[in-house]
Design the sequence.
């Protein structure tokens, strides 16, 4: 198979770029996105052929992806992640909770949805002959890049700020990346990587600084559409850092409409951030086109600790055009919800995922959404990668008193 890419273009100015070449950002420093010949896809690809695909996970959407040769698809056994409805959480939301659905991305390789974007970026790097990939990361992007680059036999270097969760730094090293801790913030790691692009031929796969991570992340929207019988929920809550996912999903919904594969109302897109780092929420509230840098970013939800996003204008546009909104939650609300959902539903959410649940509850309370809306909340990684409360109860095997258990 070849691919159906027609051209690449600057997401801000529309300037066109040649898909056969290696690209970073556009001339004006904005993200470059991939455009497809949708009329040809509509003619040559039946929606039912997607449903019958035996390819692993997001590779079932190959006709809507940029990789030309099957040989270049780098795969670690991706799965279509499940939609899990919350059955026992009615008391949290003040009613029936079964229309509240978690898209559980923790089941992907490396335990987070970063596998989608980096799997695609590494596959395209392989196709275009890139030799050395590099990334600045607060966590999950590093390990996903490491895993896919190692699988592809491409070298990679990962730079982590010194407050990156220990587990992410270690898992990255264990999956084959040259891994380094930097005494600085993510932006400063990014600067070192920009230097490496000039000095030693690194290629940066930082968020939105190359065209293909969005294409991987958009498959979340394709999966939801297919899983819901080529229909979509009323509202999607997405924990937003660099925003690749919200931008990607909004992009693929337009593609699906143009293809004629869906004809439903599009979901309202809700961007969820933490009160300790909420540049998109602030910009949304002020009605701005771009988001200002957030000073002193601090939150336990490290995946959304992103003070400045290159695609800010695309995130804000997706929220606006969809009739959605942006909200922030406190770390306390996030931790409370992580505990509640584990207790009631048996799902160990990551803090970023728990933040979407807290944001949904707050939005119900404030009337931004209604309990009759069908909603999808994103759990973007496994909770196993994050610190958990210590177990403090202990039992003396020589002196077991069963009343101790029943008193609990
Ligand atoms: C990276 C990350 C996010 C944010 O994703 P974007 O698409 O970049 O906004 C959310 N949650 C987790 C766990 C992450 O690793």
Sequence:
């Amino acid at each position: 198979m070849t691919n159906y890419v027609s051209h690449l273009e600057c997401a801000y100015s529309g300037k066109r770029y040649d898909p056969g070449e290696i690209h970073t950002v556009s001339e004006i420093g904005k993200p470059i996105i991939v455009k497809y010949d949708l009329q040809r896809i509509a003619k040559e690809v039946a929606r039912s052929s997607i449903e019958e695909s035996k390819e692993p996970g997001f590779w079932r959407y190959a006709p809507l992806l940029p990789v030309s040769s099957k040989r270049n698809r780098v795969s670690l056994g991706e799965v279509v992640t499940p939609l899990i409805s919350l059955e026992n959480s009615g008391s949290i939301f003040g009613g029936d909770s079964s229309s509240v659905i978690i898209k559980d991305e923790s089941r992907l390789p490396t335990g987070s949805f970063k596998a989608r974007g980096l799997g695609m970026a590494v596959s395209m790097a392989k196709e275009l002959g890139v030799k050395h990939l590099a990334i600045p990361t607060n966590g999950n992007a590093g390990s996903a890049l490491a895993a896919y680059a190692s699988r592809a036999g491409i070298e990679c270097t990962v730079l982590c700020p010194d407050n990156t969760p220990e587990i992410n730094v270690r898992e990255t090293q264990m999956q084959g990346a040259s891994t380094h801790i930097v005494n600085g913030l993510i932006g400063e790691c990014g600067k070192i990587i920009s230097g490496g692009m000039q000095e030693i031929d690194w290629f940066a796969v930082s968020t939105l600084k190359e065209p293909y991570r969005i294409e991987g992340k958009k498959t979340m929207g394709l999966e939801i559409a297919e899983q819901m019988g080529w229909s979509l929920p009323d509202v999607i809550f997405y924990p937003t850092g660099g925003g690749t996912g919200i931008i990607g999903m909004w992009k693929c919904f337009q593609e699906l409409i143009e293809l004629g594969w869906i004809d439903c109302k599009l979901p309202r897109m809700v961007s969820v951030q933490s009160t300790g780092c909420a540049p998109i929420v602030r910009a949304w509230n002020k009605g701005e086109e771009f988001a200002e840098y957030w000073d002193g970013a601090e939150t336990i939800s490290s995946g959304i600790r992103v003070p400045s996003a290159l695609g800010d204008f695309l995130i804000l546009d997706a929220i606006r055009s969809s009739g959605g909104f942006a909200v922030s939650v406190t770390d306390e609300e996030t931790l409370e919800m992580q505990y509640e959902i584990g207790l009631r539903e048996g799902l160990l959410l990551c803090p970023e995922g728990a933040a979407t649940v807290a944001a949904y509850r707050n939005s119900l309370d404030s009337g931004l959404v209604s309990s009759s809306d069908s909603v999808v909340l994103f759990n973007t990684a496994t909770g196993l990668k994050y610190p958990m409360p210590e177990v403090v109860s202990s039992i003396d095997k020589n002196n077991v008193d069963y009343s101790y258990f029943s008193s609990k």
About this structure: The CA atoms of residues 49 and 76 lie 23 Å apart. The longest strand covers residues 155-161.
